[in-house]
Amino acid sequence: MNNYIFLTDEGFTFQPDSESDTPDIENLQVLGFASGVSADEVYRNLLVDHAYLKESTFDQIFCYRLDKSYENTRRDFHLKT
């Protein structure tokens, strides 16, 4: 069984106490964690465990397997298909 983290670079982050209308930081947001044999299975498991993601305005998400060589495990998905 493999563990994955799901992220998106959609959305914005403001620094605490910021009064600016412009986001302060380009960031990644963690959408959740899931487990399974393959990235596709883990994606399905994520949507079962976090069904609210389908109703969110996020579309482009990606995952990495939590592993020493995680850079080679990236998979991209679209919530709005």
Walk me through this protein's architecture.
With 81 residues, this protein is α+β, with helices and mostly antiparallel strands. It has one domain. Helices cover 14% and strands 31% of the residues. The protein has one helix at 39-49; strands at residues 2-8, 29-36, 60-65, 75-78. The protein has a four-stranded antiparallel β-sheet with strand order 2-1-3-4, with helices on one face. The longest helix is centred in the middle third of the chain and has 11 residues, at 39-49. It is globular, with a radius of gyration of 14 Å.
Q: For the residues shown, what is the average pLDDT? A: 89
Strand % is: 25-35%
What coarse outline follows from CA principal-axis ratios? globular
Question: What is the rounded Rg?
Answer: 14 Å
* First-last Cα distance: 27 Å
- Give the helices and strands as they follow along the chain: EEHEE
- Count the DSSP helices: 1
How would you classify the helix and strand content by structural class?
alpha+beta
Kindly state the percentage of residues in helix.
Answer: 10-25%
Summarize this, please?
The chain is an alpha+beta fold and 81 residues long. The protein has one helix spanning 39-49, and strands spanning 2-8, 29-36, 60-65, 75-78.
Question: What does the secondary structure layout of this molecule look like, with pairings?
Answer:
Elements: E1 2-8, E2 29-36, H1 39-49, E3 60-65, E4 75-78
Antiparallel strand pairs: 1-2, 1-3, 3-4
